[in-house]
Amino acid sequence: QVQLRESGPGLVKPSQTLSLTCAVSGGSITTAYYYWNWIRQPPGKGLEWMGAITYSGSTYYSPSLKSRPSISRDTSRNQITLQLSSVTPEDTAMYYCTRLMGWEYDSWGQGTQVTVSS
User: Fold this and answer.
1) Sign (positive/negative) of CA torsion 5, 8, 10, 13?
2) DSSP symbol at 65
3) CA–CA dist 40, 84 (Å, integer)
4) What is residue 91's three-state secondary structure?
5) pLDDT at 118
6) Helix (H, G, I), strand (E, B) or coil at 89
7) Which residues contact 15 (CB under 8 A, 6 or more apart)?
8) Secondary structure (DSSP) of 72-84
């Protein structure tokens, strides 16, 4: 069974770039036809899809984030990375790495809390 584990700095200062890693075990990130997504949930709000990278390396992003996110992968380490530039306190959230197959998010990490504060 696939497992996803997010990791990151926890606290980031405004205007900096946030970098999070999702370590995947029990399955390859290159297996067709999975999409690997980053989703976040700000305190008191709903889930927000940020972007995805596919099994073949193609990327997709939410237009609402205005080119700030960048998703990449390291196939040798079986990891997915999210970078989010120019963070503000509004980027404070729980960040999740998830796997999508078809229309179902069938695996989720436990999430990692990120706080943006000076």
Assistant:
1) negative
2) G
3) 12
4) helix
5) 94
6) helix
7) 86, 87, 88
8) EEETTTTEEEEEE
